[in-house]
Amino acid sequence: MGDVLAGFHAAWEFESDSVLIRFERGIRSPKLFQALGERRVPLEAIAGVTLTPGKRGTVVLHAVPRAGADPLMEAAAGQLKDTCDPYRLVLPAERETLAEYYADELRARLADDDTPAERYLVAPPEAPLQFKAYDGKASFDGKRVSFRWSWTGASSAKWKAGDQNFPVTGLSGVEWRSPEVFEGHLRLLPREPAGAKPDQPGQPDQDPAAVVFGLGYGPVHESLPFAAAVLAAVRSAGGGAPALASVPRRDPADIAERIRHLGELHRAGLVTDSEFATKKAELLAEL
Are strands 136-140 and 129-132 parallel, antiparallel or unpaired? Predict the structure, then answer.
């Protein structure tokens, strides 16, 4: 096709075998888009295309990524807000006819294959990468992940364990929990010997293989590209699909204790009504 369709915060250039997405770096663009810069998405990495009404006189062209094709979306595991989804192009409603034309053109070029991709088809963010977590600094040079603990935030368990270095060859995957929810963190999952039963991970603030986020720490535009790059390196090093762990269900007694503590913060005026309600609902959802 070779044409360009410009929307809010991004422009899509349609090529014969891919879509080149260039993100704007303006102050109103989501920081994740600014961090990504541009991405080339092969057509084989797209499972489908939709065009739906948006908010406030807009329409949304959405290229649905194929499972297993993009390490960024694999690491995000459905936690991204719509406004930060790099596969959504928001346009003024008056461009709906034009957007429908490109949607039809894309659909006509897609293969009828909804099976998960055997390899990543979209390039991951490039190393070196780093970000500051609440309890330390995480860095990745393409071959090794390093955690350097902060004296102001790290738990005694992490200080006792010391700074950590993890070769990607010793990892099986990552667990990324968005900093925009309660107890956000990045955890590295070790590669277990064949037949070995994996250890049950502890709380992220006590686990030397994890860094925890917090207000102003580990923002999405820094920690998610980091997680995606590590995930891609793990797959490249191991030759198979890396593990993506879900957050384990918590002990009800632990949940009750955390809600009690949250209530104390609320009564002390350190947590607003809306923050209390949101965090309490998140905790209850983990039962």
Answer: antiparallel
Looking at beta carbons, which pairs linking 186-194 to residues 24 or more positions away fall under 8 Å? 186/133, 186/138, 186/210, 186/211, 186/213, 186/218, 186/223, 186/226, 186/227, 187/245, 188/145, 188/230, 189/243, 189/245, 191/238
DSSP 186: E
List Cβ neighbours of 218 (8 Å cut-off, separation of 6 or more): 131, 132, 133, 134, 179, 184, 185, 186, 211, 212
Q: List helix spans (H) across 64-170.
A: 71-76, 96-109, 156-161
pLDDT of residue 113: 78
pLDDT at 110: 93
- With CA atoms as reference, report the closest residue to 232 among 241, 224, 223: 241
Q: What is the block-wise mean pLDDT of the chain (287 residues), using blocks of 10 residues?
A: 88 95 91 96 96 94 96 96 96 95 94 88 96 97 97 93 96 96 93 67 92 93 98 84 54 67 69 71 65
Reported CATH class of domain 129-244:
mainly beta
- List, in order, residues 6 or more apart from 269 with CB less than 8 Å away: none
CATH top-level class of 4-109: mainly beta
pTM above 0.70, yes or no: yes
In the chain, domain spans: 4-109, 129-244, 252-285
